[in-house]
Amino acid sequence: MEENNKKILLSGVKPTGRPHIGNYFGAMKQFVDLQDKYQAYVFIADLHALTTSRDPKQLRQDTLDLVFDYLAIGLDPEKVIFFKQSDILEHTNLGWIFNCLTTMPYLARAHAFKDAEVKNKEVNVGLFDYPLLMAADILLYDTDVVPVGQDQKQHVEIARDTAEKFNFSYGETFKLPVPLILDDVKTVIGLDGQKMSKSYGNTIPLFADEAEIKKLVATIKTDSKGVEESKNPEECNVFALHKLFTPTEQLTEIKKRYIDGGIGYKESKDILADNMNKYLTPLREKRAEIAKDPAKVIEILKKGAEIGRKKAEAKMTDVRAKVGIDL
Hints:
This protein has 327 residues and is mostly helical. The protein has helices spanning 21-34, 46-49, 56-72, 90-99, 104-107, 111-118, 125-139, 153-170, 210-217, 237-245, 248-260, 265-291, 294-323; strands at 8-13, 39-44, 80-84, 145-147, 178-180.
């Protein structure tokens, strides 16, 4: 795959286990939707995972699983430079140089560190320092945009601050990236009505089978209104998920039946489970097919790393000369 003249988008994804439909509509699908508009670099952030992972076998499996997931939902390695972070050593090389420019009080303002402090957690150096590795991830590739949620803007701000500090100290070197905050990124409601999140235990796995989906949908929290009672669809957790999976014409009919009365939550859940299965079954089947050939998937990551490494090496040649370690 040859690079083109499109603006560069970069995003890293930590291998953290089974994705759910909130992950899909909140982030994963966005990468697929943007891969034609931008020259996208998408990497598996396995070095970032080491801040919490202590099981090498599990990390290898989670990494492979994450690649299966993204290929299954439509990420195209002919369009996207898809690689594993640890395969390009320039990430950690540049991260160290940024360490030497950045003060500890500055890093202590990072959200993850402050959150850990409040909870009296023992913080390893990697967790304290990960914003600078993330800055290196972003700045190595002359990134224009980084897709993030509103609560992740600080990551891009730290990368911009770091770029400005390096440019001021050593001369113009790094492009200043901007966050790409997508207005239509959806907050997906979980089984209990809160935001869908693994930490709340309220998720529906993206690649769940038909029986699991039906079982989980049946547990969605509702009020106690009867079949014939009028219901407000905008206050219903089941209807919130209908908006993601139910075709427009059928959705309009269900909404009318909610307001007029004549539909119970069991029927609404049964329709939802059916529509979810229609939507998710092709993804599940494609993933199963991809997972049959892990060697092919590893080869995709290697090819992506070869392309990414060329750009990273060129940037680091310039950086090494500017800081004086290029004898």
